[in-house]
Amino acid sequence: MATLLKVANLHKEFTLFIPGAKKIRALENVSFDMEEGEILGLTGKSGAGKSTLMKCIYRTYLPTSGSIRMHLANGGVSNIAHAPEHEVLSIRRTEMHYCSQFLHAIPRVPALEVVSEGLRVRGYSREDASGQAQKCFERLALPEELWNAYPSTFSGGEQQRVNISRAVLSRPRLLLVDEPTASLDLKTKDAVIDILLELKASGTSILLITHDAHTLNRLCDRCLHLENGALRNAVPVRNTEKV
Ligand SMILES: Nc1ncnc2c1ncn2[C@@H]1O[C@H](COP(=O)(O)OP(=O)(O)OP(=O)(O)O)[C@@H](O)[C@H]1O
Ligand SMILES: [Mg+2]
User: Fold this and answer.
1) Whose atoms come closest to the Cα of 61: which ligand?
2) Closest ligand to Cα 46
3) How many helices (H) and strands (E) does the chain have?
4) Which of 39, 34, 38, 42 is nearest to 71 (CA)?
């Protein structure tokens, strides 16, 4: 299998602008490789640095030091930790998608449009894009009366399903997904898991943060565990009972 992502000696420090300018070490010397086509789990207690690591890879956060080398579809390699903004934006547009735990809904844009818009910018007709979004909503059991409503008023679990639909239909090479099943019942959780497995089968690599043992066991090929910002192990996932 080819390497997709090579993270080396990654550090991230935050300075809190409070009296005394306290510093927080969120990531400390994190190094790992991610292979093309794998689902890599990321676990650890609240505050361990999971979202910070994911946001460094998506470059929402600029790492303090270290490198994040991504092997691109065109055969090139980009060091996301240092790449210019326009290069990062191009990678986000074409091959990397970040699905946060929360939906940052644009006011007064209906759910169907939030999801189908991503397909339309990639050349799909309005009808086709809307059809694919509806199919995804059906599979995730999002009630039909919500399809044309505004997600800013949705419950946490409903927003999560809109977010996941948008991520899945963008079919990126690398999907970063933070707690995709946290507020969902078991049946809907399994629907999300099935959809993510189909995405993997079509070639997407997935980095997945989860506290949920069921999601971890069904989805992940390997798992990285963070403790106080440092990686503690890299273990196979099957039969893991504890997260
Ligand atoms: N933008 C920020 N500014 C200052 N500190 C931050 C920032 N983002 C994260 N941190 C700090 O970095 C540490 C790691 O936070 P992070 O959000 O990565 O944890 P997490 O493992 O994702 O936790 P959770 O499971 O609760 O989501 C925490 O101490 C947090 O307070
Ligand atoms: Mg987090």
Assistant:
1) 1
2) 1
3) 7, 10
4) 34
Find out whether 173 and 203 touch, Cβ atoms under 8 Å.
yes
What DSSP state is assigned to residue 205? Answer: E
Whether the CB of 50 sits within 6 Å of ligand 1: yes
Helix (H) or strand (E) holding 10: strand 3-15
pTM of the shown model: 0.92
Query: Does the Cβ of 55 fall within 6 Å of ligand 1?
Result: no
176 in helix, strand or coil? strand
Type of residue found at 210: T
- pLDDT for residue 234 is more than 70: no
- Please tell me the distance from the alpha carbon of residue 241 to that of residue 195, in angstroms, as a whole number: 23
d(CA 214, CA 66): 33
Q: Does the C-beta of 15 come closer than 6 Å to ligand 1? A: no
Q: pLDDT above 90 covers what percent of the chain?
A: 79
Q: Domain 3-236, what fold?
A: Rossmann fold (3.40.50)
Query: In angstroms, rounded to a whole number, what is the distance separating the alpha carbons of residues 170 and 173?
Result: 9
- Residue 49 CA, ligand 1 centroid: distance in Å: 6
Ligand 1 close to Cβ of residue 51 (< 6 A): yes
